[in-house]
Amino acid sequence: MDIIFHHPTFDTEYWLNRLQQALPGARVRQWKQGDQQPADYALVWQPPVEMLSGRKGLKGVFALGAGVDAILSKLQAHPDMLPDGVPLFRLEDTGMGLQMQEYAVSQVLHWFRRFDDYQAQKLQGKWQPLNDYRREDFTIGILGAGVLGGKVAESLVAWGFPVRCWSRSKKDFPGVVSFAGSEELGSFLSGTRVLINLLPNTPQTVGIINRQLLDQLADESYVINLARGVHLVEADLLSALDSGKLKGAMLDVFSKEPLPEESPLWGHPRVAMTPHIAAVTRPDEAIAYIAKTITQLEKGEAVSGMVSLQHGY
Ligand SMILES: NC(=O)C1=CN([C@@H]2O[C@H](COP(=O)(O)OP(=O)(O)OC[C@H]3O[C@@H](n4cnc5c(N)ncnc54)[C@H](OP(=O)(O)O)[C@@H]3O)[C@@H](O)[C@H]2O)C=CC1
Ligand SMILES: O=C(O)C(=O)CO
């Protein structure tokens, strides 16, 4: 079995060695321009079109991350990039769930314990205890209740917050109120104090966090965007912050990355940000998952993690 690998920034040598150890019967190689030699599986991130297009004998492509929007948009421009019938897989959790939990819990607690207000007071040299917030006024709403949204929901339930989620299909997560479909989006938003975004980037979700949506949240609410920058209309977020409707935002992803230096988000006192690091691919866990999936595929067994090209995630 032959496996080709391409990632623009990962330590390729490390990945090749560890993949070889995990799949001792396979021949694993870095794909280089011009390489049209046979391959059974391709492991990719931002693949050059020629790496995949027209390839015969390919049995599966693995995206080396959770989101497949970049691959799918390339596929739209070059439909022959993924040969007909070749399944596309993505990473399911592989260590990203815990990282998302850490991020979401730490930020929710930061706001819940009013550390943002105390920081502002500190800058004014003000010593003033404030009223505590109550958990019943701090409903967390998670957009997207898939692998990562589900993990984040679980961790916030454990901290005693009222938690609700919104997805295409209904969920049955312990302690979480589930809303599904566009007809239930309004009820989901009503009363939500902290909105956490973990949706995939699809034509249906682009621009979903806009003025109309933000207006439906509780007053003095907060937004955490952990998914993709295109979900959020940045100008609408800034207006909602300036009107007082929103109290704070924590952003990991942006419509343009790196965030251009002229963006007003940099200087806004109630916007905090990180440079798209909410959850990164952990090589060892990802390799174990890919090796297990390939082994199952080779035995003709059912696997999970297959992307629906129809749904775009
Ligand atoms: N910032 C970062 O560092 C990272 C960001 N990400 C982002 O997080 C995203 C989520 O990852 P993951 O949890 O693994 O993805 P999943 O595919 O497991 O979950 C997606 C969720 O979104 C729901 N959904 C999709 N479309 C709609 C829609 N139109 N209306 C309502 N709900 C919808 C799905 O509903 P249903 O369950 O019914 O199918 C599902 O619950 C990734 O696509 C990626 O963009 C991922 C990793 C790191
Ligand atoms: O895995 C993903 O989709 C990411 O965004 C990683 O940064």
Automatic annotation (TrEMBL):
Cell compartment(s), UniProt: Cytoplasm
Location of the active site: 228, 276 (proton donor)
Enzyme Commission number: 1.1.1.79, 1.1.1.81
Reactions catalysed: glycolate + NADP(+) = glyoxylate + NADPH + H(+); (R)-glycerate + NAD(+) = 3-hydroxypyruvate + NADH + H(+); (R)-glycerate + NADP(+) = 3-hydroxypyruvate + NADPH + H(+)
Keywords: Cytoplasm, NAD, NADP, Oxidoreductase
UniProt-listed InterPro entries: D-isomer_DH_NAD-bd, GhrA_Enterobacterales
Domain D-isomer specific 2-hydroxyacid dehydrogenase NAD-binding: 106-278
CDD domains: GDH_like_2
Enzyme class: oxidoreductase
Primary localization class, coarse: cytoplasm
Family that this chain belongs to: Belongs to the D-isomer specific 2-hydroxyacid dehydrogenase family. GhrA subfamily.
Function: Catalyzes the NADPH-dependent reduction of glyoxylate and hydroxypyruvate into glycolate and glycerate, respectively.
UniProt cross-references to PANTHER family, sorted A to Z: 2-HACID_DH_C DOMAIN-CONTAINING PROTEIN (PTHR43333), D-ISOMER SPECIFIC 2-HYDROXYACID DEHYDROGENASE NAD-BINDING DOMAIN-CONTAINING PROTEIN (PTHR43333:SF1)
Protein name in the entry: Glyoxylate/hydroxypyruvate reductase A
Organism: Cedecea davisae
Organism placement in taxonomy: Bacteria, Pseudomonadati, Pseudomonadota, Gammaproteobacteria, Enterobacterales
